[in-house]
Amino acid sequence: MQVRLLGTIDVTVDAVHRPVHGVRRKAVLAALAVRPGEVVSTDRIADVVWGEDLPATAGNTLQRHVSHLRQVLGSRDAILARAPGYVLDLAGDGTDAAVAERLIRQSSEATDRAAAVRHLREALALWRGRPLEDVVGRAWLDVEAERLENLWLLAQHTLAEHRLHLGEHAELIPDLERLTRDHPHDERFHAQLMVAQYRAGRPADALATYQRVKRAFDDDLGLDPGPALRDLEAAVLRQDASLDLAPPPVEVQATGPAQLPSAVRGFTGHADLLDRLDSLAGGSSGTAVVCAVTGPPGAGKTSLAVHWAHRAAGRFPDGQLYVNLRGFDPRDSAVDPGEALRGFLDAFHVPVDRRPAGLDAQASLYRSILNGRKVLIVLDNARDAAQVRPLLPGSPGCLVIVTSRDRLTPLVAAEGAHPFPVGPLTEAGSRDLLAARLGPARVAAEPEAVAEIVACCGRLPLALAIVAAHAATSPDAPLAAQAAQLRDAAGGLDPFDGGDPSTDVRAVFSWSYRALDEPAARLFRLLGLHPGVDFAAPAAASLAGLPRVDALLRTLVRANLVTEHRPGRYRLHDLLRSYAFEHVRPDDRPAAVRRLLDHYLQSARAAVLLLDPGRSTVDVPAPAAGVTPVALADRDRALAWFAAEHAALLAAVDLGAGNDFDRHVWPLAWSLTTYFDWRGHWDELIATQTAALTALRRVGDRSAAAHTHRDLGRTFAQLGRFAEASLHLQAALALYGELSDVAGQARTHHNIGWMLQAQGDHRAALGHSGEAHRLFKLVGDRLWQARTLNATGWLHGRLGEHEHSLRLCEAALALLQELDDGHGEAGTWDSIAYAHDQLGDHAAALRCYRRAVDSFARLGDRGAEGDVLLNLGDSHAAAGEHDAAEAAWRTALATFEALGHPSAEAARGRLRRPYAAASGSTSGSTASQTSRTG
C-alpha cells in the first residue's frame, strides 16, 4: 500500500486508488504520512485537524477517524497506537514523497548524467499538483508542503542542468519557458533558459529573457536581479566562451597535488649540492628531512630547489607542495604561516567545515594528513625559522626544502635541518649558464667578453640570466658591447654592504632601467613606493599623476621589470622593488605618496557607501591633481574591489602613518570598517582603527577620534571583549557630548545597546536603543530612525513582548523599504522572523529568515548571514524538521569557521545537541541589531 501526498491525498492498494473522504480524515492521514514510522502525538494531530477550534469530543472523534483510515488502508496494523499518539506503519516506499526523495537521491549518486536524468524524470512524474493540496491552511502541514514544493523545484533545476550538459538545449527551451512563466522570480530557471537560448543560436532571445526578468523583479519586488544573472547577461553580450557547451571531461589519474613552478631552463652548477639532496632523499630517517638552502639574493636558491624538485618528483608519489613565503619583500608582506597552511589544506581538498580554528590546530591537521605519505614540500623565500615551523611535517617519508636569505640557524639547531649554503657559481658554471641560454658557439667566440660579463655579474645566476636575456634579444650584437654597458652602468651605482655580491645585480637592473624612455622609467621608479603585494593600473596611474598608464605598464612588462601575474594585476620582484624604491627622486616622493593615498581613500570611500549607504559620511582631504580613483558601478563591484585591494589598503594605512599623512589615515581606516566587519577581519579592523586613533591624537581631531573610539568599541563588543568595548564607547559618548554632536551620540547609544544585548542585558539595551531613536528623530535622520526602531522592536521581543515587537519591526521594515536600505531591511526580516517564531507561526518565521539570509548573502555580510542561518536552523528544529535544521547549522558553521568567528562554537553546540533547539525558543541573532558599523 502507499499513501499519496504529492497532489490530492489518497491511498493506493494493489495498484488501485482508494479515495479518502473528508478533509479532517485527510488531515489525520497527512499528519501521520509526513512522518511515516514515527510516533505523532495526539496533541499534534488534533492541532493539525482542528487548530484553535478543538471540540470537547476531539479524542473520540480522532479514534473514529483512525478506524476509518485503517479500513481504507486495508489493514488494522497500518496505523498503530503508540504513546503518546499514533504511528503509520508502512513498509518500504510507503508514500509517493518517499519514492520521490529516493529517486532524487539516486540521481545525485548516479555515475553518469543520462542515468541521473532518468531518475529525476521518474521522480517528477509523481507530482500531480500542489503537495497536500486538500489540507492547505494547516500550519504544520503547510511547512511540509513547502518542503515538498522546494524538493520539486530542486529536481527541476537539477534536471535542466543535466540536460544542458547533455546538449539538449533546443529541446529544453519549451520546458524552461513554461517554468519561468510559472516561477517569474526564480533566477535559476531564467539563467538556464538564457543559456539554452544562447546555445541554440538565439542570443537575442537570451537577452530578451534577461530584460523580462529584470522588469518583473523591478515591478514586483523593487529589486534588481542577482549578480549571477547580471554576470550571465554580460557574458551573453560578449559571447563569452564559458557559455558554450563544454567538451566531455578528460579523465586523469589523480596522484596528489603537483604545485611546483615551471622547471628552470638551462640550469647549471651546484652539482655537489644536488648530489647531497639526492643522498638525503634516498636515505632512511625517523622523521621528515628538512634542507635549509640559504644564501644572498640572486644566488639561485629557488632555481636550485625547483630544479632538484622536478628531478626528484618521482620519488614523492603522494604529491609536491610549493609556496612562496615572500619573507624578504621590501614592504613586509610576508605570507602568514596560517595562509600557507590553508593553501596546503586546499591542495589536499580538505573541506572548509572540517578545518579547525587556530594555527596550532590547523598545523596538527596538516601533519596528520602527511602522516604515512611521501610528499615533497618546497618553502621558498622564508623570512626566518618561525615562519617555517608550522609548515613542517612530523613523520618520515616527506622531504622539505626551505630557501631563505636568512641562515636559518635556529632551524638547523632545533629541527636538525641540513644546511645547504648557496654561493656564487664557479666561473665554469657561469659560462655554462650563458652557453645554455645563448648557445655554446656564441659564448666560445668571445671568451674575454664572457669573462667580463661573469665578473660584473658576480657569478650570480639571476644577474647572468638577465644579461643572457638581453643578449638573446640582440643576436647580432657582440657580447663585448653587452660587457661594456654593464661596466659603464656599474660605475655610477651605490654598492650594497661591502663584499655583497649582489652589487653587480644592481648594475644589471640599472642597465635594464636605462633602456627605458623617461615616462616608463619614471613610472618604474614610483612603483617602488607602492606598499602592497600587487597593484592595478589606476593605482599606478595615481602614483604617476597620469590619467592612464596602460601603455607604460606594457613597456615595463616587456622589459621584465614588472609582471602581470593576473589579468589587470601587476607586481615587482622584491629585488626590483628595492631597486626602484632607492631610485625615487626625493622631490617626487611626498607628492607621489599623497596621490597614492588619495587614490585609495577616494576609491574606498565610494566603495563603502555602495556597500552600506547608511554609513555616516566623513570629510576627506580633497584629492591632489592627477589622482585616478576607481569608478565602481554597484555593490558587487565594490565588494570585489575591496577583496582585490585588501592587502594594499592595509599597507596604505601604514604608509600614511609613516609619511606624515595623518589626515588620510583615519578616513581610510573608516572606509575599511564595513568590509572588514562583513568579512570577519576584526583583528585588521582593530589594527587600522588603532593606527587611526594614534594619528588623530597627533593632529588633535576630537570629532574623528570620537568616531574611531566608537568603531573600536563596537568591534571589541563583537569579539566579546566587553570591558575594552565599554571603555571605547564611553569615550566616544563623552567626546560627542563635548562636541554637541547629536547624531554621533545617537549612533553611540545604538552601539552601546548592541553591546548590552550581546551580554544579555536586554532591558538596559532597550534604554540605549530608545535614546538612539529619539536622537535620530531629533536630527531628522529617517534611515537611522528606522534602523533603531527595528533594534527597539527586536529587544522588546527578547523581553517576551512579541506582538509589540512585530508591530515595531513591521513599521521599521516599511520605512527601510521606502528608503531602499538593503542592509537595514535584511536585519529587520530577521527580527520579524524571530517574533513569528515566538508566536508559534513557524511557517512565517521560516519565510522571513530565508529573506534575511538571502539578503545578507547578496550584500556580502557573511557574519550576519551566519547569525541568521543559526536562527533558521532553530526554527526548523522547533517545527520538528531536524534534517533542515542540521543543514542550516552546518552552513552557519562553515561560514563562521571561514571568518574565524566566535559564533562557530554556538553552531557546533547545536550540531552536538540537534534536538535541543526544538524544545525551547529560538535565540534571536545579533543580525537583528542591524548595521553594527553605523
UniProtKB/TrEMBL annotation:
Single GO molecular function: DNA binding
InterPro entries: AfsR-DnrI-RedD_regulator (IPR051677), BTAD (IPR005158), OmpR/PhoB-type_DNA-bd (IPR001867), P-loop_NTPase (IPR027417), Sig_transdc_resp-reg_C-effctor (IPR016032), TPR-like_helical_dom_sf (IPR011990), TPR_rpt (IPR019734), WH-like_DNA-bd_sf (IPR036388)
Residue ranges of domain OmpR/PhoB-type in the record: 1-90
DNA-binding region range list: 1-90
Keywords: DNA-binding, Transcription, Transcription regulation
Disordered as annotated region, ranges: 907-934
Superkingdom as given in the UniProt entry: Bacteria
PROSITE patterns linked to this entry: OMPR_PHOB (PS51755)
Composition bias, Low complexity: 916-934
One GO BP: regulation of DNA-templated transcription
Family: Belongs to the AfsR/DnrI/RedD regulatory family.
Name used for this protein in its record: SARP family transcriptional regulator
